[in-house]
Design a protein that fits this description.
89 residues, 3 helices, elongated
């Protein structure tokens, strides 16, 4: 196993991780921004107000994006295990 091969494999793993986490992070970012704008305009400075909508939005997005995220993860794992003989030798 060459160093280039290891770097390529690590790059694919990091890319898959970012690809799987991106929808959840973007939705949490958007909801957090909307709640922050709402708090700034109404001058409500309750700290817990920012967490509840984000938790609900991430939970709903896990339900919505969950099958796609699982298929991406399974594809990467399948490719990893199907090429296991190349990794060992």
């Amino acid at each position: 196993m060459t160093p280039d091969f290891v770097l390529t494999l690590a790059e694919r793993a990091v890319f898959t991780t970012i690809l799987i986490a991106a929808p959840l992070l973007l939705i949490a970012l958007a909801v957090g921004l909307i709640v922050s704008i709402f708090q700034a305009t109404t001058q409500i400075q309750e700290q817990t107000l920012a967490f509840i909508p984000k938790i609900i939005a991430v939970f709903v997005s896990v339900i919505f994006f969950g099958p796609w995220m699982l298929s991406q993860l399974l594809n990467f794992t399948y490719d990893l295990f199907s090429n296991l003989q190349r990794f060992v030798s």
